[in-house]
Amino acid sequence: MGLLDTDLMNRIQRTLDEKFGEGEKLIYGEPWSARESNMEPGSYPANKANIRRLDSRIGVFCDCTRDAVKGHVFYRKEPGFVNGGEGLEEDILHAVTAWCGSEEFSPKAPSQVITYVSAHDNLTLWDKLVDTLAPEGDTIRRARNSGGFTGWRLPSI
Question: Which of 93, 7, 12, 103 is nearest to 49 (CA)?
């Protein structure tokens, strides 16, 4: 989605509202572009930095929550909150309020934030737990606990 501009994304949302009724269709996407896109001068890419320029029903995947909960996906040994990382309490508070009001990432509404921790980009939650906890680190319990940040639930075994 970061390859497209905010005006285009908002026009798409308005068109969907006109065709199907307001609120019947939601848009969400990856707020990343990998590289710059050839946009008109003065346009803003539909990425995390410009989320406030998007309609409140256009959502993005939130890597801020993912990294706060399980640790950064590119650094195997870097823990997040659920696996013993320190100094992440403020990020966890922002995560449970969908980052509304934070300075780092500031959506207009919780509806703009798609929270996930289990998998997306490289190391999965399980990978991170296994690599950052001692063998007796209760990996299954911590995996279940991390689901509380997203509404996801690991089945009982």
Answer: 103
Domain boundary assignment for the chain: 1-61, 67-104+117-149
- Strands laid side by side in the 58-61 sheet: 27-29, 58-61, 113-114
- Given the structure tokens 């308005």, which residue do they identify? 14
Q: 45: how many CB neighbours lie within 10 A of its CB?
A: 21
Contact in structure between 121 and 109 (CB atoms under 8 Å)? no
Read off the pLDDT of residues 88-144 as tens digits, 9 standing for 90 and up: 999 998 988 888 888 878 899 998 998 888 766 788 888 888 888 877 667 777 777
> What is the pTM assigned to this prediction?
0.80
